[in-house]
């Protein structure tokens, strides 16, 4: 069969060829067995495996097959789009198989016990498939196994103790599954184990002390499980350990001093547990450490000064604890520090000048502590800073002009302090600035004109200061502005027409100022606008539509209260508000943003909140036109805005009847029509509003019987007082429909949990910074939470969504699956 035609054919070449011919063909039995298996694939036309044919040589020609001495030694069909099961694999026909790599395919079904027949296997890799069921104990027969990777599947049940028989194992990766039960102590026998990853399962119980016997371990992760108890002191023996990740469990007790013995450690993450006590000073011995994360625990005491010895540290993440005392000056030695997260603690004192030495610092998060004093100008030496986050401290003095020199600054928040003086105009030189939040201070003076054209700016929040003068008039085309909040200042003049250039604007709050203008109907062309708040200004005149088709299509909150608007209620405006006309059903399918990167603080803290704002907010729609000079009738068309939760038309000069169409506002929670000149009877339809928690119809000229419905009992007589003609419960008897027995309805008080709102406030700003899931999140949620204080209502929805997201955790995206 072999044609040998060359005349210069040496005998050496001849023997070589002969060898190839006789030896390199895989045993026919092996090839046949593999073909049989391939025939069971759901996609047997798989293009990568097209080379697997009866007429070709398995050892020479088949994709992914490597032979040794004519027998199949390696089967490596990683990432080959194979949809199949492991049931028909030729377990008994491949006695020399050492390397089986089926990773990143679509293998489903369970791992059959026959896997134990592959006794020569050295490497077994099934990662990132759809394999379910339990790990068969027969796997313990694979005595030569050095690498076992099954991460990224749907395995459940417990980890078989028999894995402890695999004494040659060097790498064991079982992460990203649904394994439960406790970690078998037998793993402590695996003397050669260098990597142990149990990341993201449902393991419970405590971490066995025996794990501390694994002297070869370099990487240990059992993050994201339900492990309890304390961190075993024995882990202090693992002197080759380089990664120790135990974050997101339920570990309690103190951090063992002995962790300070792990001199090889480069990354230590114990975040999101219930650890208490102080941070052991011994951690200052870990001089290879580059990443130290202890966030979200109950750690107290001060930050140990020896942490300043960690000269390789690039991230120090201690937020959400109860750390107190001052920031140690020694931290100024951390030349390589790029991220310093100390927010949400109880740190006090001023911040030490030495922080100014941290030239590598990109993120400095000090918010929500009790730091005092002024912002020292050495902060401006931190020329690498992108994030400077210091809200909610006791800082005072001026905002330094030199901040304008930190040219890469993207996020500047100093809100809720006591800063005074003027806004430094240098800030407008920061061409990367995305978030500027100096709200809730005592800043005065005018807003420099140049602030109107910081083209990168997305959030401009100066609420509750003492700014005076007029608004900048030069908002320019291409503006990135998403949220402009100048609420609670002393601004006067008109609403600048140039705001119509801010096409991305979602939130505009100019409330509580002295603006003197007519209604800015032209804002209706901003199709993204969700919140428009102009309350408590000197706005006046009738609200008339401009006749355009698109008018506030996404508006969900409009608050024009406490102005001097006059004439009829704006019927044509109501006819347009598309966003208020549908009750959003999308809540049923919240978007799951995944758990991308493991130590992403924000992503972890708030994984349940990664939702599109729009979806949440569309459940909270408000029309507040109270305390103006509106007259005429309440237009029936209001009844079409069926998504309204809060409708307030009180303190106007409205006349005529209450339109029965208001009975269509089926989710309305608060309805206030008091202090008008409404007459006639209360429409029976209002009695069917089952969500209604607050009703005020007082001080009108209403007459007749008060309609009774399921919610009527909750309203007291002051809901109706000042209407001489009204009769019936609760005002009087005599309508023949008094309730038989009084039921206890608990009307939930609007529950203003400041801490909750602050937490969310952090969240959305961080979200804007690109952490987690990107830009369009949270602005409006937070906006409304802070401005309405209605926490309880939102908390309910968020809980519901978190639950749904947890239920959906199984749907993981392959691209996100990581080994450790
Ligand atoms: C395999 O066949 C299916 C259905 O016949 C087809 O949709 C798919 O594109 C084919 N795949 C390849 C790689 O040829
Ligand atoms: C397995 O196959 C992939 C893709 O062909 C290749 O990149 C990889 O090096 C192979 N691994 C082994 C261990 O043979
Ligand atoms: C898997 O294969 C696809 C192409 O089929 C390629 O784009 C991708 O990078 C591969 N993934 C890995 C992890 O090798
Ligand atoms: C993976 O396999 C399952 C079960 O056989 C099948 O329903 C699914 O379509 C396959 N997915 C892909 C991407 O091939
Ligand atoms: C399996 O193949 C993938 C992709 O080439 C590779 O990254 C992995 O290390 C292999 N597994 C083993 C155990 O060799
Ligand atoms: C594993 O999951 C399957 C369904 O996929 C279920 O039937 C079985 O009871 C589970 N086993 C354990 C031990 O949880
Ligand atoms: C453990 O590793 C050592 C050194 O590589 C090796 O000599 C020994 O055989 C291994 N032990 C087992 C049980 O494989
Ligand atoms: C800040 O920079 C100035 C000028 O470069 C320098 O004189 C000063 O010592 C620096 N301060 C700190 C704390 O690094
Ligand atoms: C902005 O920077 C330029 C040059 O760097 C400087 O001349 C100017 O004074 C700065 N503007 C402000 C308002 O600080
Ligand atoms: C609003 O401005 C107009 C003229 O610009 C002035 O006549 C009027 O008094 C102002 N209204 C209030 C309430 O200040
Ligand atoms: C209503 O609730 C109060 C306090 O919770 C309770 O004392 C009272 O008995 C309840 N009344 C009825 C009628 O259930
Ligand atoms: C030859 C051999 O070892 N066969 C075994 C393959 O695996 C099954 C299931 O564990 C055993 O029952 C066989 O004895």
Automatic annotation (TrEMBL):
Q: How does it sit in the membrane?
A: Single-pass type I membrane protein
The subcellular location is: Cell membrane
Q: Where is the Leucine-rich repeat-containing N-terminal plant-type domain?
A: 29-67
Gene Ontology CC entries for this record: plasma membrane
Would I find Transferase among this entry's keywords? yes
Task: Please name the Pfam families in this protein's record.
Answer: LRR_1, LRR_14, LRR_8, LRRNT_2
The record's keywords, sorted A to Z, are:
ATP-binding, Cell membrane, Glycoprotein, Leucine-rich repeat, Membrane, Nucleotide-binding, Phosphoprotein, Receptor, Repeat, Signal, Transferase, Transmembrane, Transmembrane helix
Q: Which SUPFAM superfamilies match?
A: L domain-like, RNI-like
**InterPro entries noted in UniProt:** DNA_repair-toleration, Leu-rich_rpt, Leu-rich_rpt_typical-subtyp, LRR_dom_sf, LRR_N_plant-typ, LRR_R13L4/SHOC2-like
Chief localisation class = membrane
Cite the EC number.
2.7.11.1
Q: Name one GO biological process term.
A: defense response to fungus
The residue ranges of the Disease resistance R13L4/SHOC-2-like LRR domain are 76-221, 234-343
Q: Which domain of life is it from?
A: Eukaryota
Q: Which residues belong to the signal peptide in this entry?
A: 1-26
Which reactions appear under catalytic activity for this entry?
L-seryl-[protein] + ATP = O-phospho-L-seryl-[protein] + ADP + H(+); L-threonyl-[protein] + ATP = O-phospho-L-threonyl-[protein] + ADP + H(+)
Q: Where are the transmembrane segments?
A: 763-786
GO MF terms held by the record:
ATP binding; protein serine/threonine kinase activity
Catalytic EC class: transferase
Family of this protein: Belongs to the RLP family.
Q: What is this protein called?
A: non-specific serine/threonine protein kinase
Q: Which organism is it from?
A: Solanum stoloniferum
